[in-house]
Amino acid sequence: MFKKKPQIKPAAPLRSSDRRKLADQVIQHYQLSAPSPEDLTPEQKAEATAAHTTLRNSLLPDNVQSARFTTTHGPELKLVSGTVYIGACNGEEARILWWQIDGMMYPSVYTLWRHPDMVALLHTPEIVVKKLQGGADLMTPGLAGGPPFPERAKRGAVVAVASLEKPSVPVAVGVCAIDVCSLQKVQGERGHAVETLHWAGDDLWSYSTNERPGRQAPEEIEGWKRLLEEQQLDDKVAETRVEDEDEEGGVSLGGSSNGQSAPEKENGEQAASGNSKVAGSEKEAREQAGVEELSQEEIDDTFRKAFIYGVYHHKTTQASAPNHGLVFPLTQSIVMSALIQPFLPAFTPEQSNQLQMKKTSWKNMKKFIKTLDKQKLLRSKEQNGHETVILDIDFEDKAFAKFEPYPLPKKEVMTAGSQGQGDGATGQTDADDDAVGQRLQVMSYYKPTSKLQPLFEGAGRQLFTPPEVRELVTAYIEKADLISATNRRLIKLDPILGNAIFYGSGSLDKEVLAKGTVPREALVDRVLHAMSLSHAIVRNGADPGTVKPKSGGPPRIHITLETRSGNKTVTKVSGMEAYHINTRLLADELRKTCASSTSVEPLAGATKKNEKEIMEVMIQGPQKAAVVKALERRGVQTKWVEVLDKTKKKK
Asked: Which residues form the DM2 domain (predicted)?
């Protein structure tokens, strides 16, 4: 449900009465406390009331806030809306603790980590968990640790899912599609067992009021572990535990977790079915999912045949065109997207996952092309010191002349003269561009000047986020007793605040100094304004502490539309390096999606001494929409993009 980022409106504090009512609703629905007998003594009643209040506060703390949200759900991308509840417990940073749709309250993994036994806990192999984190549902054969299964795992019940590697740590939340508790066996069964709604790693998990990445799951949770031991499930889990992955690396059942289509999701769900008798190796796990493991020689042979098929296709469908419709030189991305990717016999996401260039003996396109050059199938050349291009292909070689086509997953619909521009050619291969699907966060930091240092004494560091600045300023004014006795929104100025942020040069400063007070919000804004600004761009949920901040505000990506040669419009894009975007791969993608010529050149006058060059991508035509879409695929938000249209006539 939260695979794609939901639209969350600004949060507002929840009224105490609403919070208590909501907490009682949760306690009643999830049966978190037993009914109290009627013949209690006053002391017992007081004790029961105190325990109930404590339970309320642990489920929905005093600082909880609510916010409306909208998202999509299911293969038909049905629009749903609801409310999220954001709060912090025991000094931790605020996270989404619950979400509500149609009056039903669902716990996040953060809530489950703090409240063992809130819902029934199901188990599945780690290899299946990876599919669940891609948006797939848990299929019946993927259930492990039973039968028997927990009695509460009935149709429509909210359940948690944990891996066999970490059986005491829930990593997903869903709703039972069947009566799991009634299953007598899972091997050989079919169908959905749990509809996955939320998991550690989705956008609900990563939401934060201070733009920090989501908290990683702990290694174990004592409360859940103790419950498992009491239910004597530890032995069952140990018997079905997945052994260590083999030397070739982790298990992946194919398909990217970003932008997965409905057919891909369905295939992923089938692959996620697993088995109650968990595989002890990647090979066995693939066999259970119906995937035949390919050797490296077979993968190499498949890629070579796919390239030959691609050339054969152009040769037979465009016999009369110059070079059979291919325009030399051919870049590595064009070769992959137009001559290899459409001709790989990948009928399932699992096969697509195996048929990747990084799993061949060549590991990359450069070595692949050079090998074909040595075999006299083509002539190549290294260009710009980092890329190998194809200058010519020997179309008369017997490898192309005697090639016999093989079945493909779907009928080719490539248009004549296309080099990856048609619908049939799959376009830029995302496997070559690691920026596609990346998650980016722009963190802003403020450093106090020497005059402001007294406000930040004892902090032990020099860089602060805006919420931290607000917190420290509030602590300072409370410690110095600067809050006005008549109006708590007004702050009295002391010599430190007056000298640090109100210099007396402007009329507003003079007015504030004359009154001796300033509104709290205006004071915080002036403190931030007086501090020096830095920024850091965090990628894919990395720890912000590992990213070195750079001075100044966050950079902007500039899109410029201008007119050349009289009435021809071109679109220029620059400033992408800071967002981990490869300009040449972006240019290759835009050349195909826009069906226009592109170029990549250093941006004149933009690079300082001893700094990396800033490159500019130029595309023929007014291509702003295509550029924005390509940037969004790479995690760039529109607020980080600045558009300048020079083609509009001045009034």
From this structure: 444-530
Which CATH architecture does the domain made up of 7-271 adopt?
Roll (3.10)
Residue 127 has pLDDT above 70, yes or no: yes
Architecture of domain 449-530: Orthogonal Bundle (1.10)
B/e letters for 539-569, b = 16+ CB within 10 Å, e = fewer, are eeeeebeeeebeeeebbebbbbbeeeeeeeb
pLDDT on residue 384: 66
Amino acid (1-letter code) at residue 272: A
Summary count for the chain: helices (H), strands (E): 20, 23
User: Where do the domains of the chain lie?
Assistant: 7-271, 296-426, 449-530, 553-645
- Rounded average pLDDT over 53-73: 86
**CA gap 608, 605 in Å, rounded:** 8
CATH homologous superfamily of domain 553-645?
Answer: SUI1-like domain (3.30.780.10)
Q: Please report the pLDDT score of residue 504 as a whole number.
A: 64
pTM of the full structure:
0.41
User: In this predicted model, what pLDDT tens digit does every residue of 271-329 receive, in sequence order?
Assistant: 333 333 333 333 443 444 444 678 889 999 999 999 999 999 888 888 877 888 787 88
Confirm if 355 and 307 have CB atoms less than 8 A apart: no
- In the block, tokens 């001796």 appear at 516
pLDDT reported for residue 316: 87
Burial of 216 per CB tally in 10 Å (0-12, 13-18, 19+): exposed
Q: Give the Å distances, CA to CA, from 396 to 33, 136, 311, 335, 399.
A: 80, 47, 11, 19, 8
CB 483 within 8 A of CB 491: yes
Sign of CA dihedral 126, 128, 132, 137: negative
